[in-house]
Amino acid sequence: MSSTVGNRRKFIATASATAATGALGFPAIVRAQTTSLRFQSTWPAKDIFHEYANDFARKVNDMTGGELKIEVLPAGSVVPAFGLLDAVSKGTLDGGHGVLVYHYGKNNALALWGSGPAFGMDANMLLSWHKYGGGKELLAKAYEAVGANVYSYLYGPMPTQPLGWFKKPIAKAEDIKGLKYRTVGISIDVFTALGAAVNALPGGEIIPAMDRGLLDAAEFNNATSDRILGFPDVSKVCMLQSFHQNAEQFEILFNKTKLDALPPKMKAIIDNAVEAASADMSWKAVDRYSKDYSEMQSKLGVKFYKTPDAILQKQLSIYDEVVTKKAEDNVLFKQIIASQRSFAERTVRWDMDTNVNRRMAFNHYFGKKG
Questions:
Q1: Domain residues for 131?
Q2: Around Cβ 337, how many Cβ atoms within 10 Å?
Q3: Fewest 10 Å CB contacts: which of 142, 191, 314, 366?
Q4: Is 24 a domain residue?
Q5: Same domain, yes or no, for 143 and 168?
Q6: Does one domain contain both 93 and 232?
Q7: Is residue 6 part of a domain?
Q8: Sheet architecture: strand order including 217-218
Q9: pLDDT of 368
């Protein structure tokens, strides 16, 4: 064997060893292949809700070191907002970000995670019921009942949503009668019973409908979303406080087949990223919603009014009638209501007895405001 051939073989062997161990003799870092998932939200790109969806994706992407990459498209990029569940279930999308109430047409029991008074629970307490009080298992049953091949994560407690935006203040329940009004979920039944002509529209379609006179009034969610979507351009009156969506939260959907195929470490990261995003969302909401609430009054001329107690009480009475009827036709609906009620009786009593009234402290430091 010539020295040239021997040197070449020696070089190849050395190069192979270097590639395996690294130039300094340490094991080489082998980059794992990136798994990419395509999500869609049910929100317009400009809405803070779509920002929340991207916040979750960014946490997953960062925590996996790039091994998993979630891309989130805005509503309508692949399917309409109300078509998200079917698209994720079929694998047209790998996942999505929305709210359970948007699936109301599949099984009305799905609306119980946010559409209604939740027996006095706020959204964080409803999430507690979901994780520790049996809600998660009941939701899995609901999706199984409609044949959805999905895995659902609930997160992100929302503040109580306004009664809505109107042409003039609503003083009594009769003022709602005859209004062309937008809402979703079980609230459709409640406002229909109040005499409204209800049209369930996704967020991005509300303002154009109000602008064209197809709606007289509407509710969406919060000060920031409502400002961004353009409510102050079509109305200057917003009624705060309502039981129609007192305790809602977001949903992160995965195609179950896609999620099950991920390594256990990746799924554990997703589990924890959901909870991290839940906390971050609630903190961001306090900051952003309060700023927009203040600026809509000081800069845009919006007048906010508290919904009269008589209307709130009427909502509760009608809601009870609606859910009693629905429970007669849907065993799972009845099970969910019973589970929530049992959890709420204990937890809401504890919450009210334990936490001090914040309005007293606010009035002490900042003066009485209404």
A1: 35-157+247-288
A2: 19
A3: 366
A4: no
A5: no
A6: no
A7: no
A8: 197-199, 180-182, 217-218, 164-166, 237-240, 303-306
A9: 73
Query: What CA–CA distance (Å, rounded) separates 306 from 243?
Result: 12
Whose CA is closest to 337, among 115, 104, 98, 100?
115
- pLDDT value at residue 369: 59
Task: Tell me, yes or no, whether 124 and 143 share the same domain.
Answer: yes
Domain count, the chain: 2
Q: Please, where are the H alpha helices in the chain?
A: 3-21, 48-63, 84-90, 123-132, 135-145, 186-193, 206-211, 223-229, 231-234, 256-260, 264-298, 309-329, 331-354, 358-366
Same domain assignment for residues 199 and 76: no
Asked if the model's pLDDT at residue 179 lies above 50, the reply is yes
Are residues 191 and 174 in contact, defined by beta-carbon separation less than 8 angstroms? no
pLDDT digits (tens, 9 = 90+) for 184-196: 999 999 999 999 9
Unique residue bearing structure tokens 């409204």:
196
Q: What is the DSSP letter of 262?
A: S
Rg from Cα positions in the chain: 25
pLDDT tens per residue, range 20-35:
444 445 455 556 689 9
